[in-house]
Amino acid sequence: MLKDKGSGLALVGGGHAHLFVLEAMAQGRLRIPHTVLISPSRWQYYSGMLPGLMAGHYRVEQCRIDLEQLATRAGVRFIEQAVVSLDAEVQSLCLSGGGHLKYALASLDVGSETELGDLVGFQGRLIGVKPLDKFHADWLSFKDTLQRRGYGQLVVAGAGAAGVELAMAAAYALAAPGHGARVTLVASEHGVLPGFASGVRKAVMRELTGLGVEIYTGGAAAQGNLIQVGRSTELHCDALIAATGAKAPYWLRSSALRLDSEGFIEVDANHRSLSHPNLFAVGDIASRPGSPLMRSGVHSVRAGPVLAHNLGVLMNGGRLQPFHPRAWVLYLISCGARRAVASWGPFAFAGDWVWRWKDRIDRGFIARFSSGGENSALL
Q: Can you give the residue ranges of the FAD/NAD(P)-binding domain (predicted)?
């Protein structure tokens, strides 16, 4: 239990787990005076619906949560700025507007940035996956360019779950009349969906092939505005989507927090910093030594209620609750059209019914943290 409560709680970022903290406050289950939510945008776009947004199945307003509105319901002050530095020793945050904010307790759920690796220096049109609102604007601009030209080549680098979803969404969207575009997916030497069961990989490969997505293996490197695959293949590239993995925000390096070798915040089973016990970290920004915890929105969602409980414990007393990630996690992979592949451990299922299942889950998530009924009707 913290002694200094005067500065209150700083929620940095509007990620999945922090939504549950705000919900608990709005419902009166969690009370922490002087709480602030800091985010560079009032809109939190739900990454699970991004492929559907690209494919044209959703409107943009159906895929986002109004953080300012949620904070108001929770009795929390909302600050629409980014955190640009953190000093854990003096418990202070520096904001993009130039101000500083002291805290007694902090929780970070800001996500990660894209690790470009050998794609650094790409000289063509790079459509960055994050932040999601900018990604959507860049994607619409690229589609408009293709429609005017009538042809083009899109390369998606990275063949994890995010990369294959984006490649299939793009192929579906660009198959419409007036879009004479080719979509190419470049995987590492480990192939498509490394780490997933063979049945899942086969099902997704069938979906990719059915949409006409070309697949290359061997990793991607930028050569001007070309993409080099392995030693012998060069791909012309009108636009590049990099889904090549996560890197930690640069400003964490000077934070005095204990970080792992890649710069992510090391936390214990309660998602509490190993070096500064008045700070929690969840989602992509966190690293649990000795744990197989993957950077996945699924884990962040399940960690949310645990985080809300533990923040209350530190302010008001009680026993911390560890977060136990499940050995098998349900992944629902969008496949461009209203189809999806479900992955549950070694099991795989595919079809339009899986997409309808995913659609209900995604819409329910948005509706849970939103007011009004704008997200209720299918297009």
A: 10-289
Cβ(150)–Cβ(143) below 8 Å: no
CATH class belonging to 114-245 = alpha beta
CB distance 142 to 124 below 8 Å: no
Q: List the one residue out of 318, 324, 359 whose CA is nearest residue 338.
A: 359
Question: What pLDDT digit, counting tens, does each position of 275-293 carry?
Answer: 999 999 998 899 988 766 5
295-313: per-residue pLDDT in tens?
A: 555 667 888 999 999 999 9
Domain extents in the chain: 9-40+81-112+248-316, 114-245
Q: Is the pLDDT of residue 37 over 50?
A: yes
Structure tokens at 367: 């509706």
List the structure tokens of 326. 């499940």
The torsion angle over the Cα atoms of residues 296, 302, 306 and 311, rounded to 10 degrees, is 50
Per-residue burial over 326-363, b = 16 or more CB atoms within 10 Å of its CB, e = otherwise: eeeeebbbbbbbbbbbbbeeeebbbeeebbebbbeebb
Q: How far is residue 351 CA from its own chain's centroid?
A: 25
Distance CA 345, CA 331 (A): 9
